[in-house]
Design a protein that fits this description.
mainly alpha, DNA polymerase, domain 1, hpI Integrase, Chain A, 3 domains, 16 helices
Length: about 375
């Protein structure tokens, strides 16, 4: 069927089905939502538009932008941005396939600014109380939430863990294999004794799940009736536990991930390593997960100042108490004293080039001292 005989809805749906061949099902569904929103607006405001070639930036696309901004309740910037990006992707693809379309219907400047999210880790006391409450419950779901808290994995990744997810990669090294997930990547998360204990406990409790759930969950660590029902059970248990320990704000599974990220940063894990632990592709995303408090700033500042003092500290070398004798041990002692004086003098020089030259000279003196050691060794 030629393009001219297809409706706008048929044209978009045909291309979305093509995209679905190489995209996740959820991605294709999100494109459909954006198209449905746009075509619904177009049919109500401009029913005469029936061809892609009739689309104009003004009034059709600009009118849709205004329509999205006027929703009640208002849409988040992120939601509107995704609608525009998905529709722009489809329009560009259709133009590349030969459909007659005006260029630049959706421009870069049309995209709403990104929402700026603050890190949302749990306060330390509430985090500890919540952990204790989940340990006290000691069921499948509470242990799954503890596993999420101690590994920083996404709740969806936790639901998709396999029965053999915890594996020993070396005699003293265990790791949790996190399956393909949101970013189509698989990774290993180090598993200490506590994480291993939690996984073992889940395996102990697993046979007690309803037989129907076990039948549908062959190979998965967490039994389920359906994926959505499993998520709701985990979510509800976490909310109930947070209420019981009087958490000061709403707690979600994703906040456990923020708490893990902030804890790892405070324990000294570098940002590049933390990015790998969390499964991020962009370190900018990792920065959105960690909270740096004034206490953290003070601790890091004073630690840095202490390291500076250690860096510039002149190494203590033995100084001769009297004039060296004219023998090999005396020459070795004189070399050691000379290196000490040279290093003391070098550290105080402002000229970087001169400092480097003196450092090379010290290296030669050190080589001579080593040769003397080899000569003196038989005597020793």
């Amino acid at each position: 069927m030629s393009h001219s005989k297809l409706s706008l809805d048929q044209i978009f749906e045909s291309h979305i089905q093509t995209l679905a061949l190489t995209r996740r099902i959820a991605t294709a569904a999100q494109h459909r939502v954006a198209v449905r929103r746009f075509l619904g607006f177009l049919q109500g405001a401009f029913p005469q538009v029936r061809r892609l070639s009739e689309l104009r930036r003004d009034p059709h696309l600009l009118g849709w932008f205004r329509f999205l901004c006027q929703q009640d309740p208002p849409l988040r910037n992120r939601t509107r941005r995704l609608y525009l990006l998905r529709l722009r992707r489809l329009l560009e693809d259709l133009a590349a396939e030969g459909h007659s379309l005006q260029p630049n219907l959706i421009r870069r400047e049309d995209l709403p600014p990104r929402d700026q999210y603050l890190p949302r880790p749990l306060p330390f006391e509430e985090d500890q109380q919540l952990q204790e409450e989940l340990r006290r419950a000691d069921n499948l779901f509470s242990n799954a939430l503890l596993l999420t808290r101690f590994t920083g994995i996404r709740i969806g990744e936790c639901m998709d863990l396999s029965l053999d997810c915890c594996q020993r990669l070396a005699p003293d090294h265990c790791a949790l294999r996190v399956p393909l997930g949101k970013l189509h990547t698989e990774r290993w998360v180090p598993a200490d004794s506590e994480i291993q204990r939690i996984v073992a406990r889940i395996l102990e409790l697993r046979p007690g799940a309803p037989p129907a759930h076990l039948a549908k969950s062959e190979g998965w660590l967490l039994p389920r009736g359906s994926r959505s029902r499993l998520y709701r059970s985990l979510f509800d248990l976490l909310v109930d536990a947070a209420v019981r320990v009087n958490c000061s704000s709403h707690v979600t599974p994703h906040r456990l991930r923020h708490t893990y990220a902030t804890e790892m940063l405070r324990l000294g894990v570098s940002l590049p390593v933390l990015m790998q632990l969390l499964g991020h592709k962009d370190i900018g995303m990792t920065l959105l997960y960690v909270q740096v408090t004034q206490q953290d700033l003070q601790r890091e500042f004073h630690l840095a100042r202490k390291n500076v003092a250690e860096l510039h500290r002149v190494p203590t070398l033995p100084m001769p108490n009297n004039t060296p004798h004219a023998d090999l041990p005396g020459i070795h002692q004189a070399l050691t004293a000379t290196r000490h004086l040279l290093e003391t003098y070098r550290r105080g020089l402002p000229n970087e080039l001169t400092r480097r030259r003196l450092q090379r000279l010290d290296g030669r003196l050190f080589a001579i001292a080593e040769q003397l050691d080899h000569i003196l060794m038989p005597e020793k």
